[in-house]
Amino acid sequence: MPIYEYHCRKCGKKSTFITLSVKAALEPACRKCGSRDVVKLVSRVSISRSEESRMESLADPSKLSGVDENDPQSLARWMKKMGKEMGDEMGDDLDESIDEAMEQAGGEGADEDDAGEGGGADEIS
Fold it and tell me: Are 110 and 98 spatial neighbours (Cβ–Cβ below 8 Å)?
């Protein structure tokens, strides 16, 4: 089943629509504000996994390697990584929420490009 994503020009949010076939007629509207002023996005390919498969992946102890519980930036990178494992269940605002919490804690937010590296940031006092 094709999944299409659209960006709302009015509120800036992304909406996702699943269709039964490529030929199915779709009249997308923003799920947040209802505006029909949306632009189709070119999205990456996504492979659906079962909930059991995702939970097994999250329970893997190797996923915790490189996580320093005393380093907020390391924890933020880990949270973003786990959010990606959970897929849409975590919501589109997960990264924003993590970055916001980092700013409140005095950090600079976690850079998504560093998702696989261990914590190297200074400890916040």
Answer: yes
User: How many distinct helices (H) and strands (E) make up the chain?
Assistant: 3, 3
**One-letter amino acid identity for 15?**
S
Residues of the chain with pLDDT under 50: 108-125
φ, ψ of residue 52 in degrees (nearest 5): -60, -45
Region of 82 please: left (phi>0), alpha (psi -120 to 50) or beta: alpha
Burial class (CB in 10 A: 0-12, 13-18, 19+), 34: exposed
* pTM (global) more than 0.70: no
Q: Give the helix/strand (H/E) hosting 67.
A: none
- Number of neighbours of residue 30 by Cβ within 10 angstroms: 20
Per-residue confidence (pLDDT) for residue 71, from 0 to 100: 82
